[in-house]
Structures are given as structure tokens and as C-alpha cells.
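Q: Start with the shorter request: fold the first protein.
A: Done. Sequence, then structure:
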Amino acid sequence: MKKALVVASLAVGISLIFDYLFFAVYMGSKDVWHITTFYGYAWLAVLTFGEVLLLKKKLLTRQYAVTTRLLLILTLCLLFLLFFLFYYLM
């Protein structure tokens, strides 16, 4: 459950940042967050916890060891994707 909380908070945090960057900065919108936006953020958290509760046995049998090398590769891929998106949008 602790890992699900981390994943849910990361998903909501990334969504907050990208909503702000896209709608407020890029589009110039004054009203970035509405109640429906917060419903979407809550839905991300519900999906994460629902997946853990429904697939708990399957997730425990298929554990994958996360190494420093894998985290570095994923971080570099994410940075490349962000750079490409910002370059493409500007």
C-alpha cells in the first residue's frame, strides 16, 4: 500500500505540473483548475489503489527488482521526452 501511495502521489503531482505548464503557461488560461480537474486527480489515485486491491496476489508473485541502472535509464528517457515536448511546443 505504501508503494501505491507513492505511485498515486507521483501521478497526481506530475498531472498538476503538466496541467499548469500546458494550460496556464502555454495556453495562457486564467482558470486552470476546476472541480472536474480535481475529480480527474482523484480518479488517478482511485485507479492506483484499486489496482493494488484487485490485483494484490498477481502483483506479489510478479515482483521486479528495480536497480539504480534501471532508474537512471527511465529518468533519462523521461528527460528526453520532456525536452522533446518543450522543443516541439515552443
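Q: Next, the second protein, separately.
A: Sequence, then structure:
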Amino acid sequence: MSAAARPEPLRLRLTGSALPFQLSSVRGRVAAWAEGLGAPPEMVDDLVLATHEALANIADHAYSDRADLDGRIGSALLDAELTTGGEIVVMVRDEGRWRPPPADPGWRGRGLLIIRGLSDDVEIAHDDSGTRVQMRWRLHKAADSLKQQEHGSGQTGLR
């Protein structure tokens, strides 16, 4: 795919106390964007759910005890792009405070586990400026896996 043919990145800024109410429309926008890349339906589902979980974590945890100077709750940023190497990269960022997951999360608190299970790779970084969750999927991993199986099935091994 040439650089000129690559689709535009998806960039969203979700604001303040409205963040929880924006998640439904964000799921639709992420799904439409990923479908436009040619992602298979199961990958679209994984992308949407992992992105939703990352944003829901921001809504639930990042600003729970902190407000901006004007009294509004902070924002979340979502950046999604297709790299020249064929990877879909979704980054979700906030400017809130990191709270480590509790030892016993009860019936909740499985967001990071879900994100890690749905993504090919996840990086989480947090410091005084906020938290960044970067998730990656190889767009053509299903085709790559099939090629590996085809090449592997025609080979004979030593016994």
C-alpha cells in the first residue's frame, strides 16, 4: 500500500464529564475506520472492544479525584493509524493520575487484562503527565499465518 493510498488516521479528543456518554459513538467511529482499512470482522471487534476498555478506564479512573482548573473533568485523546508496515496502532492518552489495579478487583477491574488479550501488543506508560495505552494489531496477520502454514505443510522434516 503506498503512502498516498493509506487512509487518514483517526484522531479524537473526548472531553470532560461527557466522556462516558461519548463512548458509544466512538465505538461506531473506530469500527467504521477499521472496516475502511479492510480489517476482518473479528479484528474490528477486537479493536473496538480494546479501545472502548482503554477509554472506559480513563472515564472510571484517571480523573476520579482531580478536576481541571475550570472545574471540568479532564479529556481523553485517541489516535489511530495504519503504519507503513501494515500495523494498526491505537493510542489512548489522558492527563489524569495512574491508579494501580487493586489486588482483588471484585466484579470489575478487568480492562487491562481484556486489552492485553485482544491486542497483538500493548504498551502502557504512566507518569506525572498522565497515562498512555498503545495497542497494536497486524492488519494482515491472518494472511501471514496462512502463508506460513502453506509453506510449512510442503516441507518434510527430519525424523
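Q: Describe the second briefly.
A: The chain is about 40% helix and 25% strand. Residues 155-159 have pLDDT under 50 and may be disordered.
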